[in-house]
Write a structure and sequence with these properties.
Radius of gyration: 19 Å
Number of domains: 2
Distance between the termini: 27 Å
CATH superfamily of the largest domain: NAD(P)-binding Rossmann-like Domain
CATH topology of the largest domain: Rossmann fold
Strand content: 15-25%
Bound molecules: NADP nicotinamide-adenine-dinucleotide phosphate
Number of strands: 12
Shape: globular
Largest sheet: 6 strands, mixed
Structural class: alpha/beta
CATH architecture of the largest domain: 3-Layer(aba) Sandwich
CATH class of the largest domain: Alpha Beta
Amino acid sequence: MTIDGRTRTCGLIGNPVEHTLSPVIHNTLAERLGHNMVYVPFLVEEGRVSDAVKGAYALNLQGMNVTIPYKSEVIDSLKDIDTLAENIGAVNTLVRTEGGYKGYNTDMEGLYRAMDSEGIRIEGEDIILLGAGGAARAVAYLCASKGAGKVYLLNRTLQKARTVAEEVNRTTGAEVVIPMTLDEYTRLPERQFLAIQGTSVGLYPHVEDVVIEDRAFYQRIHTGFDLIYSPWETKFMRLVRENGGAAFNGLKMLLYQGIIAYELWNGVKVSEEDAMAVYEKMKAHFV
Ligand code: NAP
């Protein structure tokens, strides 16, 4: 890659940012597609998000990704926000516009594309969603807006599950999200489910942790999708597989949220061939 006077810069703001794979996604795409663009991580200290966004704009940065813990806080620093991101209440992509950045949420569409590429359907499915944090909230919104049957939202803190269910049901106008505690899995209707693991339990280095241990729970899952991708196979995924289900990790979700951001910044459509070339590079970090 040659950096010259015309090189455009994009980046990631978050804390921490040291282990991010986003530079692999964007710099590989820029190289493959011949775009004169570089992507770098920026560590932003607590309380400095607004300064960071103003500084990025002043420095002519084309776009930014936003990661933990700033996906909600960054909203106050935007000139405009996409309706989907506003409904979810979280922004992970900023796109430069006249006078400031416009915020988008590409996590949700990224998950949708990732599931689609694995042949997983949401439409008409009854879904178990574990977790009610920022990511799970976007997943609940995705499921409700893409025509899921019922979404059983199981969370350690019932009040958070209730809040997410109420907001998603209200915004989508569909009464599909049902809040429950984690122990209430024994009360789920007798059928097979698509289950999405959206808590942070099981994330490296706590690889032997899982929110529900009971094997009887996993016998009810035909497909399990864990948003976590480190470790490559979480305990949740292992239990799904050991009980006869198919299981997938969250690396393709990360891939596609990045690809959608790249498409927004560069006004292009990334081909599946290029997407898979990036995926292989990302995968090399794990297996
Ligand atoms: P978050 O807002 O902090 O939410 C954490 C969730 O985990 C909450 O539901 C919390 O329950 C639950 N939880 C935490 N510790 C628990 C424990 N000991 N027992 C039971 N439940 C527990 O985090 P987030 O931003 O939603 O992220 C969740 C996961 O998704 C992370 O692992 C993240 O890496 C992953 N993620 C992946 C992608 C991707 O591109 N693949 C994108 C976004 C996020 P309470 O409500 O009871 O606290």
